[in-house]
Structures are given as C-alpha cells and as structure tokens.
Amino acid sequence: MDATDTPLGPGSDALASSDFSTLFDFLPIGAYRSSPDGRQLRANPAQVRLNGYDTEAELVAAVRDIAAEWYVDPQRRAVFKAQLERDGYVRGFVSEVHRHRTRERIWVSENAHVVRDAGGNILFYEGTVEDITERMSNEAALRQRDEIWKLALESTGDGVWDWNLAQGVAVLSRRCLEMYGLTLEEMQGDPQYLDKRTHPDDLALLRRDRQAHLDGLAPTYVNEHRILCKDGSWKWVLTRGMVISRDANGAALRMVGTHTDITQRKEAEALIWHQANFDALTGLPNRRMLRDRLTQHMLRCDRERLQLALLFIDLDHFKQVNDTLGHEGGDQLLIEAARRLTRCVRASDTVARMGGDEFTVVLPELHGTHEVERTVQDILRELASEFRFGNDRTFVTASIGITFYAGDTSSVDDLLRQADQALYVAKGAGRNRFGYFTPALQEGAQQRARVANDLHGALAAQQFRVEYQPIVALATGRVHKAEALLRWHHPQRGLVPPVEFVPIAEANGLIISIGEWVFRESARQVLQWRERIDPGFQISVNKSPVQFHRAKAERQTWVRALTMLRLPRRALTVEITEGLLLDTSADVANHLVALRAAGIGVSLDDFGTGYSSLSYLQQYDIDYIKIDKSFVSGLAPFSNDLVLCKAMIVMAHQLGISVIAEGVETPAQRDLLLEAGCDYAQGFLFAPPMPAERFEAWMEERRTA
Ligand code: C2E
Ligand code: MG
Ligand code: MG
Prior knowledge:
Elements: H1 12-17, H2 21-26, E1 30-34, E2 40-43, H3 45-50, H4 56-62, H5 66-69, H6 76-87, E3 89-98, E4 105-116, E5 122-131, H7 133-155, E6 159-164, E7 169-172, H8 174-180, H9 184-187, H10 193-196, H11 200-214, E8 221-228, E9 234-246, E10 252-261, H12 263-277, H13 287-304, E11 307-315, H14 318-344, E12 350-355, E13 358-366, H15 370-384, E14 387-389, E15 392-394, E16 398-405, H16 412-428, E17 434-436, H17 439-458, E18 464-473, E19 479-490, E20 494-496, H18 498-508, H19 511-532, E21 538-542, H20 552-564, E22 572-577, H21 578-582, H22 586-597, E23 601-607, H23 614-619, E24 624-627, H24 629-632, H25 640-654, E25 658-661, H26 667-675, E26 680-681, H27 692-704
Helix pairs in contact: 14-15, 17-18, 20-22
The protein binds ligand C2E and magnesium ion (MG) (2 copies).
C-alpha cells in the first residue's frame, strides 16, 4: 500500500502503513541515509538546513564524498566507519565538520548504525547529526576559566580542592595534601574524606554552610573548622569554595575551593579570648565572663523554671592584709581564697573574680533557696580559717550578699546591683556575715541614688550649713572648743542627716569640695569666736578618709588657706577616724605631717570602734581621742564600759593625749567620766549642735547663769 494514499488517523491500517516519514521530516536534528562510499542518499529538512541547503535534492546532488568534504579532520570518517563496522553503531560521535555549502565550521554529535540485507551485505548507513557548536563553546570557556582559577588559587600558597559532584569524585592539590600529611592514594577520590577528618564539633556547622551555598542560598561557601592531620594533631583551616558549574535545574555539578591554614590565628584568638575572660591572678572567670555565664544561666532558669542564686563576696579589711603582707602576700591570699571558694561549690557553679578582693559565685539550677545557705556557711568558714604563706600566717573574714533569680524580669545588671546592695548591708552589719537582698534594700538603694543626684547642686545652691556643738572641759565646765557638724537643708526633704549623705559624697568624690567649704566656714568662725568668746577657742572639723587620698596639690589647699587667714596654731583640729591610720600609704602620713606642720591639731574620732592600736597612736602625733558614744551610753557604776573607758583614758594620758567623751546625755555619765579622769565631754546633756548665732546665745546664757 502506498503511504501517501492513506489518510493519517487512528487505526491499524494507518499505523501499519506509516514509514515514520513524518517523524523524519519534523525531527529537530539532522537525519540521513548515506552510502559507505560517502554520498548522501536521503536527508531530512534539519539535515538539509544543517548543511546550508534549501532542499534535499540540492544536498544529495552536492555531496560527493563526506570523508573529504565534510569532516575538518579527513581521518574522522575512517574512525567513524571503523567503529560502525566493528560495533554496528556509533553513539555521541563528536567531530568538527563543515556546513557543506558555506564551509562554515561547526561541531556535531552523531549517532549512526549500519543497515544490511538478508545476506549481511551493507546496504547503507542511517544516522542523526546534532549541531552542538554552542554547547562546545560553552564548555571550552568553562574549561578555560577553570584553569585560570585553579592557577590563581594555587599561587596563594593555599591548598586547593576540587569536587566533582556529578561524578562523585574529589581531589586535593599537592599543597593541600601536604598541609595534613595526607596522600592522594589514601584519599581515593572520596568526597567524604575530609569530612571524616573534620572535628566532630565543627562538622555540623561546616555542612550547614556548604549546603547553603550548594542550594544557592549563599554566594560562597566559607567555613572555619579543624582537620585531623596524619600526625594526630588538629589544624584550624579556613575553607572558601564556590560551585563552578550547575545543570539546567541549578543543581551543583562541580565545586572548587581552597584551604588556608589559620591555626596560628586561632591560637592567638584563643589566647586573647582567655585573657579577656579570665582573671590572670587566680585563673577564675572575670567580670565579663561572669556576665556571660549569668546571662546563660538566667535563660535556662526561664526555660526550665529553676532558680539561681548570685553571691557577692568581699573580703573584710583586705587592704590591711595587703599592707602587712605586702602586695605579693596579698596576691597569694587572693589565689588561696579563690581556691577555697572553688572548693565550696559544685563543678557546675561559677566562681568569678570581679577585681580586687571581690568575688562572685553563681549557683544555678537551684530547686529551692535552702541549698544556698549551706554553701554560704561553707564559704564563710573556709575563708575564716588560717592562711599560711611560709612563715606568715593571717586571718581574713568575708561578707556575702545574696540575691535570687527565679525567671522574673530582672536583668543581669539588676542582679549584680541587688547582690551588691545585700553585701553593703552585710558589711554594715559588722562583717563576717551574709545578707539577702530584699525589696527594702532596693528602696534604700534608690533613695541613695536620689541623694547622690541632689547632692551635685547642693553646694552651689547653698543648701549646706555648719552647726557647732560645744565641747565642755569636765573639770572646770569651761567651753573653749566646739565640733563643726555639717547640715544639709534639702529643699523638699528638709534636714538630711550626715549619715545619709556623707558616705554618698565620699563615694562620688563630692566630699572634697563640700569638705573644703566646711573647713573655710569653720576657719572663719573660729577667728570670730577667738575675738568674741575666748582667745584660745578651738573648732574641730571632721575630715573624711577620702580627702586624704587626693593629689598633693589639693592637699596643700588647707595649709595655704590657714596661712592666708593667719590662723593661730591649734585654732583648728581635724577629726579623723581610726581606719585612716591603718592606711600605711605615704599619702596619709605625709598629709598628717603637713597638717601638723601648719599648726592643726589631730583628733581621733569614734575611738574604740575600729582597730585601735597603741602603735598607731604613737606613730602619729595625736592630740585628742574621742571616746565613741557607744561606750558612753553604756556607762554605769561597775559596768564593762566604765572599765573600758577608764582604760582608754589612762592609756591616752600616758601617751600625752587628751580625751573627749562623745554622746554624753546624762549627769550620771558625766560624773563617771569626770571621776575616771576624762578631760572633755560633748553631748546633748550640754547642748546639741547649733547654728553659730544660737551657739553664741547659748554661751552668753551660760556665762550669766
Ligand atoms: P561624729 O564626728 O562622731 O559626730 C558626732 C555625732 O554625734 C554628731 O552627729 C552629733 O550630732 C551626734 N551627737 C552629739 N551629741 C550626742 C548625744 O548626746 N547623743 C547622741 N546620740 N548623738 C550625739 P551628726 O551631726 O549626725 O554627724 C554624724 C557624723 O557625720 C559625724 O560623726 C561625722 O562622722 C560625720 N560628719 C558630720 N559633719 C561632717 C563634715 O563636715 N565632714 C565629714 N567628713 N563628716 C562629717
Ligand atoms: Mg567628729
Ligand atoms: Mg564620733
């Protein structure tokens, strides 16, 4: 049956009659039938066009010998035929050929087979021809780019890796293998080879970064990780890589990259990190690290509904230890204290050194608050036991402030502040003890912050006054001394007592300028009263330890003021506290010497409450001691306090020091003191501190009485 007579359509007749001529015509690639001697017998339209002709007839007529006319390399046809004869077919046979008519060179890929008759004789060849010129030029460009890139990579001295994902093969450059002491043989092209030698802690992140780039989510693949070398050591490497070819769907076919040895940099970083986060002396985490851990623990508390405790620990009178043992001894003690603290806690707890003699402890994962008290007691006991360094032995105690966190809204700073406030109270309550943070403490702290704020403008706004309290000579009842006491008239809060603002002014340094002002006021006043009341009148002025730690230049201001005012000797006395004498620094000693040289007397205030020691009294020229009112208030016949007062008086007199008793409120106290030989007394029994005019009036009343 003639195929051209049969209408195309469904049905066995139509199928049976089809010789695929329509397929032949519409095939987008060239299809042909050729004779073994190199002529074209048939060609479909695509094959006609591929060769630059318009009709099949033109092509068939033009081609004489494919071997000579078509292939750029004349040997190509021989290879083609040899393969056909050997296998009966060729597949993907790639050659450069000429478009027959135009002689333009193109690349083609051929598939072909041999068609034989029943006797096995070759009838003709049949095959397809595909123009792959464009693809070939792309691949050539790629290959070229590849070479250039590899060259550039190797030249940096880094190792280079090349991973063919399509083939599942990876290779490392010589330099790369050298870095780890590995060989290509060991690796066997295994793309997993380096992954298997990557530090387990680093692998997950590495895979994530690499996948992100493979998936096209990151422009490059960059990762730092450790690789196990042949000799068993770890090397830190920075790898940078890039996919250089992808298939039509964007899947990565090949990726290349480098390895840079960054071990040294990592070691330096680790060292810096350690220095930044740990205390050099004790090896404990430092303040920064503590904040870090505290933050982590707080997050865990939130998640797991646990509690944590933060302990602020401060060694009591550490400065004194430092002074007696020397700085090296002080350091030894801190190191030992750190060890003892660490012994008192679990491995999961954090002990940190905040600086100086301050430590913190974080007790995380508490199921209740009772666990804390035992630890705190352990710490107090451990620290209180003897410290020995060679022949030196010493004792210290500690004060501890405690606060809790139970997943509330407190921040790290809140917690640190709270523990600090609790510590402040523990110290104030007499040291060697612990105290818990309470909301009342918070209120107190806020109050202190407000005071500090208001203090700044107080001097300029003339809110300060000086009041004077008479000091009475017990034997004669004469008054030719007074103590200057500072008063702050706050515009809203009224009279604020010194105990509320002096410590704050000391903490923020304002005490310096305020103290200068009190000093000038008192100097002016004493000159007046020397004329009006008694030519030998004396005023004593309280001087904060803080004022002794100022620069030398500032130290001179009192002395200069004294000379300028032409103040007679002993017109002014400074009252200092015993604590100041414990400070053996040259500053303090020089300052006291300078004051004395300028004619100022020295009183030791609040005597008996601190670390009074005879040697201090001898070492510095002290004119007066003021027995603290806590001894005076307990005075009664046969009382312990009476014994103590008597002892102090006798001791002072033996050293040529006069004695003033503070806080005398009753005639009985006065009489006992007089009997005990006390020189002077000061207290509400005689008069409270008074403004200057009231003081003068009071003196006048006494004179006339
Ligand atoms: P201080 O130097 O020991 O002063 C004695 C304190 O005892 C004064 O308290 C005084 O008013 C009070 N007082 C006097 N007689 C009696 C009494 O019979 N019974 C009782 N219970 N108390 C009595 P004040 O004025 O509140 O001063 C407290 C502290 O503030 C002073 O203690 C002193 O350390 C400090 N201070 C006062 N003025 C200044 C100053 O100008 N500069 C410095 N740095 N500190 C000052
Ligand atoms: Mg005083
Ligand atoms: Mg006092």
